[in-house]
Design a protein that fits this description.
Layout lengths: L3 H12 L3 H23 L6 H14 L10 H20 L10 H5 L3 H15 L4 H12 L4 H8 L3 H22 L1
Helix pairs in contact: 1-2, 2-3, 3-4, 4-6, 7-8, 7-9, 8-9
Length: about 180
Amino acid sequence: MTDEAQLKALMVKGLGGDTVAHGRLLSHLSRCLRGYFARRLGSGAADLEDLVQDTLLAIHLKRASYDTAQPFTPWAYAVARYKLIDHYRRSGARKAVPLEEAGVLLAQDDVEEGAVRRDLGKLLNTLPERQRQVMIEVKLAGHSVEEAARRSGMSVSAVKVAIHRGIKALGKRVRDED
């Protein structure tokens, strides 16, 4: 069972008190989460099973925060992503990837893509309109700074400053949320 509709149905039934459905959901999620964490940490990682269990526990404990009007898998993978980030922080691991390559990393799993796009959209929407537009054009769409300057009516220097400030502001917001 990997279908979003089936997983969501199990979650909704579990929220309604169906313990069998909730157990089936957690059982299926444990297999999905092992794969998710194994792709990021390596299949022989010592902490892999601990991360799976921590994530399942968090999903169980935070299940009331799930909005049934939204898809389920992005919510579940967001919980897993936060648990992985916590793991990296505790272990002191640092993963540096240029922003230009972030799209490739974030598109590794289709089930995560929706959550990532939604989170990125929310973050970008916190920026002023012109700053958001040049960030999208240069960092996400791959246009040159010169093209973004021409389209926005800004100078090349102003676009560079806007992008720098935008990245700095987004980084601060992410750190503040954690």
